[in-house]
Every structure is written in C-alpha cells, then in structure tokens.
Structure to design on (380 residues):
C-alpha cells in the first residue's frame, strides 16, 4: 500500500508524502485548498484536491479551471503544470487506513502536445450534456421523420399499384407501413433503455491516452470520408455518395465527442492492475461508443430512407415502374434497418456486457486463487 501516500503542491513546491488521514486533516484545517494539486502513485497526472472523493464536502467536488491550473504550475518540475482536469475516477480516501512508511516515488511527467490543446478546446465546447442532447435530438428526428416516410412510401406504393393494376400491391404497402409503425415504437422505447443502461453500466480504462487517440482518429476519419464522398461520382445526381459520406462524417465526429467525455458514458479513468482488466475496459468502451451511436444511426437512417423514397419517386416518372420498384425496396430496407437498430443494439449490449461480467469474475477468481508470495507465506 505504498501507493496510498499522497503528495501535494502549494506555492510551486512539492510537499509530502502524507497519509490519506493526514491529507484529510490538512483539508479539514484549511491548510489544503480545493484547488491545490495532489498526486499519488498509480494516478496518471496531478489533479485538483476537490475531485478526490471523501476529501472535501460533496458540494466542493467540482472541477476547477484547467487553464488556470496549468498556468499556475507551468514551472513545476514534476509535471503538475500538465495536470489534466479531464482525469476522472480519482481514488477515494477511505474513513480509516493503516499505511506503511512512505518510500520515494518517481513522478510521471506528461509532455503537452498541440493536439492536447485541440482536445481541451473540444472538451470545453462539447460537454457531456451535448452528447446526451444529440442522442435525444436524433431520437425525436427519427420518430417524427418515420411518419413522413410511411406516408411517402404508401403514396408511391399506391402509384406503383395503379400502374401495375394489381390490388395486391396496396395490401403489401399497408402491411409494410404497419410493420414500420411497430418498429417506430420499439425504436423510441429501446433508445431510451440504451441511454439509461449506457450511463448506469460502469466501465474503466487505465488512461485517457486511448480515449484521446481514438477521438483524434475519429475526427480525421470523418474528414477523409467526407472529402472522398464529395469528390466521388455516382450514376445519378440523386444517388451520389454524398449523403452516405455525410452520414459517416457525422457518426465519426460524434464518436470523437463521446471519447473526450468518458464521464458521459459512466467510464472511469483509473490505473489497471493487469492487462486483462485493461482489455475488458477497452471492450466495454468500444461497446459503449457503438451503443451511444445508435440514436444517431436511427435518425440518420430514417432521413436517408426518405431521401431514397424521393429518389424512387423521381425514377418512377423518369425511368418507369421497374426501376422505381427496386429503388422503393431499397428505401424500405433502410427504414426497417434503421428502426430495428435500437432493439438490435440493446440485445448486443446485454450480450457483450454479460461477457464482460464473466471475464471480470474470472479475473477476480484468479486473484482469490493466486498463491501466497514467499513473504506472505512466512507471515501465515
């Protein structure tokens, strides 16, 4: 438990080590302020004392201005000037703790990169409430756009039925609309369930490095896809790849915003004790990002289905009913797939996190069955 000793910084000086109990006394007496920086072994960066659970009253556990802290400790040789306020999951100080004598510790030094400034700016402009607002907004878009899609589809199906002079086509259209109506209901209900599950199901990763690099790659991938789609050529101006490219761009950018706000998905950034725990955390993180994308996919998919229906109507009057029927079938496929995604995502989420729980149980069992070390065996 040598890692339980804390170091703190005041007036450009590094102080400590002190025990958790001593640190709590410093905070209670006012000798340690909420904006002072603290660190202990196992933490990636220095953080403000206010975010350490159990150190200050609950009302004080809010994040300080990262720019102000970075400027105040820019010359601190241990790297406190690089304190990352985005670090979450800071260890909690228990009520009582017996600790051995402290040992000398080597402090981590984090070099600031220009990309860190970009990510910090994005993090301040797109907070967690933006993530949830986007999810709720596209759920509403998909919900109401489906009404328009069903009405447009039924109108086109009636036109095709009249041209074919086959009343059976109208029954097919009515059945399809009824099925879409059911899928609309399931989509809205399961989108809400996914949002709730994603926030309440905890997950951990050992560093913000994974999340930040994922965000940068997602931003770059979105820009590349949009650039390629804008320059690609299609068979017709109505079916150029620009709509799909725009959808991919929005999905990539949204994934980046999710990654820079791990707290919005219930993800804590805490040191992992072994590679297996890190692998489980990465698997859970990827699953959470994909699930958070589902409302966006739902709304965008329905909008693309409407776009395809308009293209089918254009082809009906330009190229004839055979071409229009194929385009109409493609539009219905997009509408049904988009409406079924929340239900599919819900099932996949449960299966993956059942696997995560099993893997966590295996790791826990391995810890329990791990044999004593030589020093521990002597004490038994």
């Amino acid at each position: 438990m040598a890692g339980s000793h804390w170091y703190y910084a005041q007036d450009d000086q590094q102080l400590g080590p002190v025990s958790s109990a001593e640190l709590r006394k410093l905070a209670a007496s006012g000798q340690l302020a909420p904006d002072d920086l603290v660190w202990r072994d196992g933490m990636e960066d220095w953080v403000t004392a206010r975010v350490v659970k159990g150190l200050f009253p609950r009302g004080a556990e809010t994040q300080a201005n990262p720019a102000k802290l970075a400027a105040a400790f820019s010359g601190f040789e241990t790297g406190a000037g690089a304190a990352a306020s985005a670090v979450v999951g800071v260890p909690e100080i228990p009520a009582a703790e017996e600790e051995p004598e402290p040992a000398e510790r080597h402090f981590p030094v984090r070099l600031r990169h220009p990309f860190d400034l970009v990510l910090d700016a994005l993090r301040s402009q797109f907070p967690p409430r933006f993530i949830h607002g986007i999810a709720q907004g596209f759920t509403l878009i998909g919900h109401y756009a489906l009404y328009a899609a069903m009405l447009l589809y039924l109108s086109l199906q009636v036109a095709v039925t009249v041209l074919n002079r086959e009343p059976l086509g109208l029954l097919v259209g009515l059945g399809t609309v009824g099925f879409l109506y059911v899928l609309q209901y399931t989509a809205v209900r399961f989108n809400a369930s996914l949002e709730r599950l994603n926030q309440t199901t905890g997950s951990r990763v050992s560093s913000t490095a994974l999340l930040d690099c994922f965000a940068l790659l997602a931003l770059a991938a979105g820009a590349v896809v949009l650039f390629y789609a804008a320059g690609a050529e299609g068979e017709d101006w109505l079916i150029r790849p620009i709509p799909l490219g725009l959808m991919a761009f929005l999905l990539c950018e949204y994934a980046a915003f999710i990654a820079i706000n791990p707290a919005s998905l219930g993800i804590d950034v805490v040191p992992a004790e072994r590679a297996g725990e890190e692998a489980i955390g990465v698997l859970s993180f990827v699953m959470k990002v994909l699930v958070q994308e589902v409302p966006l996919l739902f709304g965008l998919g329905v909008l693309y289905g409407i776009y395809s229906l308009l293209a089918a109507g254009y082809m009906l009057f330009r190229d004839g009913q055979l071409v229009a029927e194929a385009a109409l079938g493609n539009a219905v496929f997009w509408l049904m797939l988009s409406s079924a995604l929340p239900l599919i995502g819900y099932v996949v989420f449960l299966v993956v996190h059942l696997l995560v729980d099993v893997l966590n149980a295996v790791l826990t069992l391995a810890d329990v069955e791990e044999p004593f070390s030589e020093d521990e065996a002597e004490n038994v």
Observations:
- Residues 61-89, 95-105, 369-380 have pLDDT under 50 and may be disordered.
- DSSP finds ten helices and six strands in the chain.
- Strands lie at 6-10, 13-18, 37-40, 47-48, 203-205, 267-269.
- The first helix runs from residue 20 to 29.
